[in-house]
Task: inverse folding
């Protein structure tokens, strides 16, 4: 009897042990945490050469190098240097009188940054060194050595002699600890003026904030061309616009319209953090643009930074299981933003034409005309805040579409004020948008 | 030795059996599937009295009855009959010449539908019976008995004698099987004209489609006031607008502006299914508005239909764990839509004023003026498609904001064309929107 019991118990043990083993195997197949390893080489503080860092972190480094070879495009962006001006000739008109009307190519991967800034036709002998601020891992060292003030005052050509590396490890990491750090003094100072101390940020917050070392709106302040983020009143478009107004700042005067115009840069961080659904759900930039991958026994964050639409299974798949459906949703959102953005451009072009004509008319009311220019300035900045941002709306669709709706309204109002200033209804011509509507008509 | 082994094995069995028991208890706490029960009373086909159905389904019925007592409001909607005209006086202007400018209260719960349609000042002796189409569970029986043509031709007061029940079980369910069904002939016919057969829809699709028995855009076609959904060319706003243009249909002529104007109804189904993120993720109307609850041993779908913002833990919590954060995200989206919608209203009011003035001016160019009216008509319909829809944008934020951006652009163009028609730049006055901007100015 006892023998019989023993057999039953032994049988049960085998069954249950097998179940336990299965569970353990399953758990072992879940993503492992990254492991701390002893460095192979010591990295000096602010070391510009990513290749040296790469000896300790070969996976991260070899994925960073992929940004040189990636050239795939998405519908609206991607990794090739296509010309925005050729794709959308309205932008030639919108940037008339400013170098962006001559040369405005899409950004390529981080490994191309230094080469591409040297190749752009926007650079000339008057270009300040400030233009190198986001292009090289030599910068953290140079900023420490020279100070940002001297760095920005040095000419582009002179400063260029000290720059040998494109964007790399030192732009976001602290040597030795590999901690994520704010390296751009302009970002540090902007946060300080907001009463914020980045050293208190969580690691997850830093996985977005280090991107703000570059992917932000900025301008060159004063004669020293001092790199400055217009964040003192906040990072929403209306707050930054108000900042520029209070500073009396313009990037250029629009020819013949005489509007003091602003160029937005690449406000990805501001756009994303303006209450977007993903941001509010705690998702960082790196979660989508640097997803974790597993290769053999290693798990690491991809440093081959590009559009998540180029590897949605990995990028979106960290949270979403229905990747294919997710990509379709992204496409639909971007199509809606694109169509709205183009309608806004048509409205601004109409406003510019009206203001130019009113300016040429000596009898125009100068106050009304200045009001028209003010609205043109605001409209164009709001539009560019969306247009220069690299996500065709996906980083924050509701906010972006609200901003575009405002921009269109402001542009039409600018046109109306110009017509009032010149007392000339013929300035109310409507460009391509109206004619593109095909919903029929009930009236003759 | 064998005794020793037996003890060890017995110990292992106890430990593993305890783990197994825990797992089973855990599994048992997961939501149970609803069970089929024998009916207590037989329900006749198309039975209008929900109280009878309620004897078989007491939980569903008692939750339906709650729609009588719920009166809580959200920021932008809810379950009380507040006046849209008092909250937003622009709408008095926008609906001038149409009964909605006299009485336009927010909808209350399903139990109030019959009482509220009889109380509205929009109803008079000329009102057709069609107005009862979405207000009573007597309808499926009456439509079968009389046919919808006769139903719609009967006067409101005459038809009213046959209606005793507010919205109830028979509006969405088939007696006996409790299957979800299309009961409104207008919906069935609209789907047929699109080549769609609702009987092939999945249950999850039906959990949205039955809402479209009422929550859709419609109009009264021809002299017979035949209830018709303008879906032949599709259910997007531009497709329905084109339908109305091809039909040469107007709801009323706007006084003094002479615009053939359209009133949108409550296009929740069209808005939600126009590629919204939730819809594309397979979420039905009922998932959020009729969440499953568990009371004792029963699990059932709440029939106390109202805004999910009034019970987000239950409504959003079926999928989202961070309910509080979700509600904040919804609020932010709705605020952005609301502000954009009000700016659109200002633009349409400006357009109306300009068209009225141009119409009063005998020298106005009639072709340009008609073009202005056409744009006013389109702009106002696009705006109302958003405004009359009960979600303040949340059902499909990107689409709604795109539509509002278009509407504002069209309204400004309408104003511009009216000024051109009258050759009078003084018609370009800009209403409250511009003055509400507070971002400063750089020009004098």
Result:
């Amino acid at each position: 009897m006892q023998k019989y019991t023993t057999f039953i118990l032994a049988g049960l043990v085998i069954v249950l042990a097998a179940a336990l083993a299965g569970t353990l195997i399953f758990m072992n197949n879940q993503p492992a945490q990254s492991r701390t390893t002893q460095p192979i080489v010591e990295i000096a503080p602010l070391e510009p050469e990513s290749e040296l860092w790469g000896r300790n972190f070969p996976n991260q480094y070899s994925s960073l190098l992929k940004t040189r070879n990636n050239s795939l495009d998405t519908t609206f962006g991607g990794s090739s240097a296509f010309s925005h001006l050729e794709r959308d000739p309205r932008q030639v008109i919108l940037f008339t009188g400013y170098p962006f009307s001559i040369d405005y190519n899409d950004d390529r991967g981080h490994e191309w940054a230094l080469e591409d800034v040297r190749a752009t036709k926007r650079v000339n002998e008057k270009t300040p060194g400030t233009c190198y601020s986001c292009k090289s891992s030599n910068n953290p060292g140079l900023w420490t050595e020279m100070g940002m003030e001297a760095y920005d005052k040095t000419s582009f050509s002179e400063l260029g002699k000290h720059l040998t590396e494109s964007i790399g490890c030192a732009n976001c990491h602290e040597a030795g600890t590999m901690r994520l750090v704010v390296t751009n003094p302009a970002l540090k100072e902007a946060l300080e003026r907001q009463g914020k101390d980045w050293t208190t940020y969580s690691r997850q917050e830093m996985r977005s904030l280090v991107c703000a070392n570059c992917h932000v709106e900025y301008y060159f302040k004063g004669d020293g061309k001092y790199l400055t983020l217009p964040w003192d009143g906040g990072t929403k478009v209306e707050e930054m616009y108000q900042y520029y107004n209070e500073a009396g700042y313009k990037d250029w005067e629009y020819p013949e319209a005489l509007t003091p115009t602003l160029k937005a840069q690449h406000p990805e961080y501001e756009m994303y953090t303006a209450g977007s659904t993903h941001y509010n759900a705690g998702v960082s930039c790196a979660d989508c643009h640097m997803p974790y991958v597993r290769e053999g026994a290693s798990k690491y964050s991809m440093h081959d930074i590009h559009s998540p639409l180029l590897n949605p299974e990995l990028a979106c798949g960290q949270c979403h299981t229905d990747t294919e459906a997710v990509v379709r949703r992204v496409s639909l959102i971007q199509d809606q933003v694109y169509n709205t953005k183009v309608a806004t451009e048509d409205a601004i072009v109409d406003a510019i034409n009206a203001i130019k004509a009113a300016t040429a008319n000596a009898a125009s009311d100068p106050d009304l005309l200045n009001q028209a220019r003010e609205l043109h300035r605001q409209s164009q900045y709001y539009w560019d805040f969306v247009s220069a941002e690299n996500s065709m709306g996906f980083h924050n669709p509701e906010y972006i579409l609200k901003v575009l709706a405002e921009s269109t309204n402001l542009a039409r109002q600018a046109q109306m004020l110009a017509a009032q200033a010149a007392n000339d209804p013929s300035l109310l011509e409507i460009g391509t948008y109206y004619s593109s509507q095909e919903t029929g008509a009930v009236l003759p």
About this structure: Chain B is about 50% helix and 5% strand.
